[in-house]
Design a protein that fits this description.
alpha/beta, ten-stranded mixed sheet, two-stranded antiparallel ribbon, 11 helices, 20% strand
């Protein structure tokens, strides 16, 4: 299947994220978000009035109130009037919508942000609301238990074992030692079982955080950034809703999204994978055909910081930032949502030589 070629050159020209923390009781969602928005705008010298389109990703289920995302617009500033949209998804999907908006020619620049505060409630229980409402959600299987089903399927199928999961955790959190924004840094003991075969070290930290990026097209991108991270392709796909009809040891939706985004045309040197559980990195590496020569999650990934509704956007931003700094030439970024890698987005980013 031939990849889809964008009709217009669009790049990520700036990225900012909060310091991800276990709790931010002293901050509202607006106060959590505002410094990140100011930072990403300051990086480009743009004002809110210069932005052609604004799109956000968050979840009212985390906030516990309907239309909570409208309050976050106080952090953006809605005067003069802005062109704005919102997705009840990770900010990575907001970036996809903004990318499409620019491809159509309706905007030349876009501000994208995602945020989430998981600390006020039990995020393991909140995420059950993503499940099939008739047969699965009434049983209240939490997100860690479902991830453990996937991990056990990998073990039973001979695809991985607990030492392999531990190695992923050690590498990821060791890489996060140089990431000042990470919530968990430095390798540590795997700890006790949460749900077998997953231990504490195999699971993501629960915390609060936000992220934002700015997109720009063509020459405007070059004016705003010395080395733009050009989006060469992006696609997202979804698995069947019922876990019982899926092979949990594989991710065909990730593979198809990668094909459509053009991942397999040429090797990548960096991959930022949204793998909240160690076992999920095993699945994603296989689906994306990533060898040991690829730097996987040099930021530490979701095992170092996993702000719900922002962690996928962080993966895109981290990949772009490495291109901005000249540390990568061709990077893959991945975001996921739903249980056991149900929905997957894949993007290819490139820098100019």
């Amino acid at each position: 299947m031939a990849p889809t070629s964008p009709a217009r050159d669009v790049a990520i020209v700036a990225f900012a994220q909060s310091d991800h923390r276990r709790r931010t009781d002293e901050l509202s969602e607006v106060e959590l978000l505002m410094p990140v928005l100011h930072q990403v705008l300051d990086a480009t010298g743009l004002k809110t009035s210069d932005i052609g389109f604004t799109c956000s990703g968050s979840s009212d289920y985390l906030a516990g109130r309907a239309f909570s995302f409208t309050m976050a617009l106080d952090g953006v500033g809605a005067w003069p009037p802005i062109s704005e949209s919102h997705v009840e998804m990770d900010g990575a999907w907001a970036l996809y919508e903004a990318w499409v908006k620019i491809l159509t020619g309706e905007a030349d620049t876009a501000l994208v942000y995602g945020y989430g505060k998981s600390s006020p409630g039990e995020v393991r229980d909140v995420l059950t609301r993503q499940l099939d409402p008739y047969y699965v959600a009434p049983l209240w299987p939490d997100s860690v238990s479902l991830a453990a089903l996937q991990a056990q399927a990998l073990v039973d199928g001979g695809h991985a074992d607990e030492p392999a999961f531990a190695a992923v955790a050690a590498r990821s959190r060791g890489a996060a030692s140089s990431n000042s924004h990470a919530q968990v840094r430095g390798s540590r003991a795997q700890g006790e079982y949460v749900v077998r075969p997953l231990r504490t070290g195999d699971c993501p930290p629960v915390g609060d955080g936000a992220a934002a990026v700015i997109l720009a097209a063509g020459e405007r991108a070059r004016e705003l950034c010395a080395r733009p991270a050009w989006i060469r392709g992006m696609d997202h796909r979804i698995e069947a809703h019922s876990l019982g009809v899926r092979d949990l040891t594989d991710s065909p939706s990730t593979r198809l999204a990668a094909e459509r985004a053009g991942v397999f045309e040429r090797p990548v040197d960096t991959a930022e994978l949204h793998a909240p559980f160690t076992s999920q990195e095993v699945v994603l590496r296989k689906a994306l055909r990533l060898g040991d020569e690829v730097a996987v999650n040099p930021s530490g990934g979701a095992l170092a910081a996993n702000p719900v509704m922002a962690a996928g956007l962080v993966r895109l931003g981290e990949a772009a930032a490495r291109i901005h700094r000249g540390e990568s030439d061709r990077a893959l970024a991945h975001a996921t949502s739903g249980p056991c890698l149900q929905q997957n987005l894949v993007a290819v980013l490139e820098g100019e030589s």
